[in-house]
Amino acid sequence: MIPISATLERVQPSPTIAVTQRARDLRAEGRDVIGLGAGEPDFDTPRHIKDAAIAALEAGKTKYTAPDGIPELKEAIAAKFLRDNGLRYTPAEIGVSSGGKQVLFNALMATLNPGDEVIVPAPYWVSYPDMVRMAGADPVIVPCGLDTGFKLSPEALEAAITPRTRWVILNSPSNPTGAGYARDELRALSDVLMRHPHVWVMSDDIYEHIAHDGFTFCTPAEVEPGLRDRTLTVNGVSKAYAMTGWRIGYAGGPEPLITAMRKVQSQSTSCPCSISQWAAVAALTGPQDYIAESCAAFRRRRDLVVDRLNAIPGIDCPVPQGAFYVFPSIAGLIGRTSAGGQRIDDDETFAAALLEEEGVAVVFGAAFGLSPHFRVSYATSDDVLEDACDRIARFCGGLG
Ligand code: PLP
Question: Does the reported pTM lie above 0.70?
Fold first, then answer.
C-alpha cells in the first residue's frame, strides 16, 4: 500500500458528494430514491450559452488558454463586478479557474503556511475546512446557530481573531442554510476587520443571484472599500446560470494575490476549459432573464418545502433568504426510534435511516459543522419535492 501523505490524512472526502453517490448506488440497485443532496440547479443551461460553446468549438477555440483566463472573459467579469457589485477590477486583478471551488483552493494554497488560521463560521460549506487543512493550515470553526440566524456576529468574529489569523471566509447567501448577510450586518463585521489589518476576507458570493423576499445582496469589498485591498471576491457561473458541469469560477482581488493564484493553477490544471470560458462570456454578457426566472421557481419550491417541513412535529425549518437549501433542526426527534427499528441518536443516524427506510437522500448537519440539522437541496421539481416531503413526513410520523 502506498503511504498517504500526512496532509491528506487530515482531510475528509466531501460528504455531499458521498451522499449523492450513495443515492446513485441505491438507484442502480433498483431502489426508488429521491436525491435531495446535490447542490446544483436542475434546469438546463440556457440555449444561448450552449450555442456560444458550440460556436467556440466550431471556430477551433480548443487549445490551451492563458492560465488565468481569456482576455474576453476577464473583461466580461470586470463588467459584471462593476454592473452588479459596483466593484472596479482591472483584468490583472481577475482570475478564472475550473469552478469557484478551484478559485478558493488556489487562494488558500497560495497564501497559507503551517500554523496559520482561517476563520470558518459554522454551518459552513463542507469544503472550506478541508481545503484549509490541505493547504497545511488550521480552520478555526466558529459556531453560528439559529440564535444568530446562522450568521457570524461581530463579537464572535472579534473573539476568533488571533495573530495567526490569515483569512475569514464569508458565504452569503449560504450553503447550507440560505442565510444572507444584510448590509448593516456586513458593515458590523467590516468594522471589526478594519481593526485587524492582518486578516484577509474571502467572500464566497457564488449564490449572489439566488435571493428571495427582497433580500439585497452585498459583498464586503463594496460595503467597506477599506477592505478591498485585502478581499478576494469569489463568484462563478455554476449556480447563477445552471452551469455546474462547465466548471468556470472567477475572483477579483489584489494583483499580487491573483498572480500567486495563477502560479498554483499554472502548475496544476494549466487553464480552465477553453470552450467553457467562451460559454461563460455569453452567460455574463448575454440576456440575464434566466436569473429571474430560475429565482422565481426556487422561491416557489422554497415555500413548498418550508411549509411542508414545518408541518411535521419535531422539525423546525427556518425560512432562508437565498441559495436553494433549507437547513431544518431535528432537535425534537433525537432519541426516538424509526419504524424500521433504528434509533435516531443524531443527524447522521437520522439521514441514514431516512435514506434506508424511505429512500430520501439528504445531507446530515454534522457535515456542515452544526447538529442536529439536515440539509435539503430544493433544486429539483415541485413533484419530486412533494413526494420527498410526503416520505419525510411518513418517516417522522412513524418514529416511536
Ligand atoms: N461555494 C459554495 C458555497 C458552494 O456551494 C459551491 C458549490 O456547491 C461552490 C463554492 C463551488 O461551485 P463551483 O466550483 O461549481 O463554481
Answer: yes
